[in-house]
Inverse folding.
């Protein structure tokens, strides 16, 4: 299934559910700056693990080439991730240095340089309302896969795309070189966005309420976007 068509199909279904508009231009959304939290418009507690797990029919988001990328230990030594980060880890307690974004009510829609996702954590963008029900796009690290879900609070989760990775102990890091990388439990790169070289611009990653995944500079300039982006592999 075509990735853009799959995302568009879910977005059209959501539009039928809610009167809230969705921006279509990539990288043009401009709410909170990346150093500010994005509180939910309605009370929200920590979410359950999303179901169902992505199946073989879920579109895959391909990785950039992994050859030449550092291991997690090497990334730490080069200052690409916080110095306290472990080469192994299955969660925050086993991945020191991992700045996991707030969950539940205080969720963020972005990962700043040096932040990471561990198993069962997410960033989210509030899409709108359907009656009294809230709708979100949520980027989860779930069982070793990075998955973008559309979440209808009373209707469950629909997976829009996945990295197709997997395995216990994975962590996903927004590195200071601008790359976004999933590492396995042994610290080897499993998947990468391929945006290394953007770090000098203060690159940070954001999931938007149009289901887009966008890389911004520190001055709010989009330099990469999954859908209709300025470049497929920038910098």
């Amino acid at each position: 299934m075509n990735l853009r068509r799959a995302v568009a199909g879910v977005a059209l279904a959501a539009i039928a559910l809610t009167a809230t508009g969705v921006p279509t231009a990539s990288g043009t959304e401009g709410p909170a700056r990346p150093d500010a939290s994005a509180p939910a418009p309605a009370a929200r507690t920590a979410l359950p693990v999303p179901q169902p797990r992505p199946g073989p029919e879920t579109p895959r988001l391909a990785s950039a080439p992994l050859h030449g990328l550092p291991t997690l230990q090497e990334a730490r030594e080069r200052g690409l991730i916080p110095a306290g980060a472990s080469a192994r880890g299955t969660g925050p307690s086993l991945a020191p240095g991992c700045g996991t974004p707030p969950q539940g009510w205080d969720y963020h829609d972005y990962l700043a340089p040096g932040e990471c996702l561990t198993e069962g954590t997410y960033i989210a963008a509030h899409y709108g309302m359907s009656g009294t029900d809230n709708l979100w796009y949520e980027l989860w690290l779930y069982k070793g896969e990075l998955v973008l879900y559309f979440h209808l609070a009373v209707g469950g989760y629909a997976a829009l795309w996945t990295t197709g990775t997997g395995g216990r102990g994975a962590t996903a890091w927004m590195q200071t070189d601008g790359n976004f990388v999933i590492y396995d439990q042994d610290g080897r790169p499993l998947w990468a966005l391929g945006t290394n070289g953007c770090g000098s611009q203060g690159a940070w990653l954001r999931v938007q309420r149009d289901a887009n995944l966008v890389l911004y500079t520190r001055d709010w300039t989009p330099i990469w976007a999954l859908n209709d982006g300025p470049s497929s592999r920038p910098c």
Observations:
- The first strand starts at residue 110 and ends at 111.
- The radius of gyration is 17 Å.
- Residues 10-28, 30-46, 87-94 have pLDDT under 50 and may be disordered.
